[in-house]
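Long-time lurker, first post. I've been practising inverse folding by hand and with some scripts of my own, and I keep getting stuck on stretches where the structure tokens seem ambiguous. Below is the full token string for one chain I'm working on. Before anyone asks, I'm not after the true native sequence, just a reasonable design that respects the backbone. If someone could post their per-position residues I'd love to compare against what I wrote down in my notebook.
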């Protein structure tokens, strides 16, 4: 059996922070960009893992954040990923601040990998040597069988420090999973309480809110 030759993954990133005290106490803008191949979640800076977002009924969005794919006798085909994140933080006073943020990440697979995926999951592209999957299966006529996906999120947090060491905060965010894997598929193994069976795959979004009370000791009065 001939094995796949070695290949090397990589990641490059850039980030900057611009302080803007003329607009408010501790005002600042932040920006980061990541690009990588063959490093799984680290392709996009380490923040995105394989998403699985369930909607109502049997609707679900899914993505595949793997490092690379290969079959016996083939070369390794790396997954490409990138992300962009931007945020702005405004200080209303020394004890009150609000920030807003936006982030987007995408994972892309080459044509060879997509053909392997089609053969392994969706009963198509026969003869590639890809191992047939038992956890998820679909028909190429009912599912796009595209492992690419995008995740984006927009959110905001307000934090108030009424006394030194006591932080009260509220957060709201909307997250969207844009899945290339669209259509019907049968899942035979799921984590948690979701039952096995037929699901419809596509895009899903979720809105979330949260509050937090945090007590710190030996700190000053200003927001850090």
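-- Answer (accepted) --
I ran through it position by position. Result:
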């Amino acid at each position: 059996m001939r094995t796949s030759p070695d290949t090397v993954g990589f990641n490059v990133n850039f980030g900057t922070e611009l302080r803007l005290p003329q607009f408010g106490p501790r005002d600042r803008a932040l920006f980061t960009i990541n690009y990588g191949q063959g490093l799984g979640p680290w392709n996009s800076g380490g923040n995105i893992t394989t998403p699985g977002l369930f909607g109502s009924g049997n609707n679900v969005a899914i993505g595949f954040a793997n490092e690379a794919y290969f079959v016996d006798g083939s070369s390794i085909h790396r997954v490409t990923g990138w992300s962009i994140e931007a945020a702005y933080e405004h200080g209303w006073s020394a004890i009150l601040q609000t920030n807003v943020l936006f982030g987007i990440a995408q994972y892309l697979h080459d044509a060879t990998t997509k053909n392997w995926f089609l053969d392994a999951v969706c009963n198509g592209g026969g003869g590639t040597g890809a191992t047939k999957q038992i956890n998820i299966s679909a028909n190429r006529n009912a599912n796009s069988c595209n492992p690419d996906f995008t995740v984006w999120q927009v959110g905001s947090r307000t934090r108030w420090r009424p006394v030194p060491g006591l932080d009260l905060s509220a957060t709201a965010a909307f997250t969207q999973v844009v899945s290339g894997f669209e259509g019907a598929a049968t899942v035979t193994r799921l984590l948690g309480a979701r039952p096995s069976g037929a699901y419809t795959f596509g895009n899903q979004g979720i809105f979330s809110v949260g509050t937090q009370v945090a007590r710190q000791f030996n700190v000053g009065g200003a927001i850090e």
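A couple of notes from the structure itself: The helical segments are 111-121. The two ends are 58 Å apart (CA to CA). Happy to go over any region you disagree with.
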